Amino acid sequence: MKPDTQTRLVGVIGWPIEHSLSPAMQNAALREMGLNWLYLAFAVEPERVGQAIGGVRGLGLVGLNVTIPHKSAVIEHLDEIDDAVEALGVANTIVRREDGSLMGHNTDGPGFLRSLGEHGHGVAGRAVALMGAGGSARSVAWACARDGAASVTVINRTLERAEDVAELVRGATGLARVNAVGLGSSEAREAVSVADVIVDCTSVGMYPRHDVEPVVPAAWMRAGQVVVDLTYNPIDTVLLKAARAAGAQTVDGAGMLVHQGAISLQYWSGQEPPVETMRRALLAGLGVTE
């Protein structure tokens, strides 16, 4: 569908943004859905975030996805935010509503749970060990606690950052069994070894530095565990290879990216997005053949 005078714009802002695969993924979905929309990537310098959000209002954009480093900075420019954004302090989706007001959502946590679910796994009643303490770790830890995890242990090289995430999740969800441990400690090995679900929310193993030791040593993993790596480039990371060698089941990072994008598209359009079409477009962008 060629753009015309009826075409509406939606997109993603970040700095930098040239690496984003969201336009390929979202435009493939829009074509299949028959929507006369165009999804673009906008490089927005940090000091111009407010102007960019003003552009959503002034130009009548459908909405935006938001990526690093703007997920927190956009919040003060929105009219309303959902519970996840309120709890986590980060928004990755902005919806322009019919009255012109802007609503902020965070779709990372729900996207993670949907990705896990499509592989037949869940976190309810299970022990979860999370590696990392950044925005993704906050979103995943919050989602796991909200979805009924028996416990969540946040593991990070800097213990103070892990404690900050644990305190945030405890306060936002009421789950008492949210703990923090330092990566080099014996407690970290114990937490990973007994966990039912292990999630790597760090960038260790991401292209181009993909030939490194995994953040979770192979000796810590065992059969019966589910190991998730949020990194999607490469799809098959060093951690996932080590996990399979230990007998664990694995889930790659492409699913979370696809599902968080699909949830955003559902917010914008009110329609059910074609998830498999989005996945194929993402994998094609990564040069992966199914």
Structural class: alpha/beta
Shape: globular
Helix-strand topology string: EHEHEEHEEHEHEHEHEEHEHH
Q: State which percent range the strand residues make up.
A: 15-25%
What's the CATH H-level homologous superfamily of the largest domain?
NAD(P)-binding Rossmann-like Domain
- Regions with little confidence, pLDDT below 50 for 5+ residues: none
**CATH architectural type of the largest domain:** 3-Layer(aba) Sandwich
Radius of gyration over C-alpha positions, nearest whole angstrom: 19 Å
The helix fraction, in percent, is 25-40%
Order of strands, main sheet, comes to 2-1-3-5-6-4
The total of helices stands at: 10
Largest sheet: 6 strands, mixed
Q: In angstroms, what separates the terminal alpha carbons?
A: 27 Å
Topology, number of strands: 12
Q: What is CATH's topology name of the largest domain?
A: Rossmann fold
Q: How many separate structural domains?
A: 2
Averaged pLDDT, please?
95
Under CATH at level 1, the class of the largest domain stands as: Alpha Beta
List keywords for this structure.
single chain, 290 residues, alpha/beta, Rossmann fold, 2 domains, 6-stranded mixed β-sheet, 10 helices, 12 strands
Report on the architecture of this protein:
The chain is α/β, with parallel strands linked by helices and 290 residues long. It has helices at 22-33, 49-59, 83-88, 108-118, 135-146, 159-173, 186-194, 238-245, 254-269, 275-285, and strands at residues 8-14, 37-43, 63-66, 80-81, 93-96, 102-105, 127-131, 151-156, 178-182, 197-200, 226-229, 249-251. The model has no long low-confidence stretch (mean pLDDT 95). It folds into 2 domains: 8-106 and 255-285, Leucine Dehydrogenase, chain A, domain 1 (Rossmann fold, 3-Layer(aba) Sandwich); 109-252, 3-Layer(aba) Sandwich (Rossmann fold), CATH 3.40.50.720. 49% of the residues are buried. Helix 1 (22-33) runs antiparallel to helix 10 (275-285), helix 4 (108-118) crosses helix 5 and helix 9 (254-269) packs across helix 10. It contains 10 helices and 12 strands. It starts with 7 loop residues before the first strand and ends in a 5-residue tail after the last helix. It has a 6-stranded mixed sheet, with helices on both faces. A 6-stranded parallel sheet has the order 9-8-7-10-11-12, with helices on both faces.
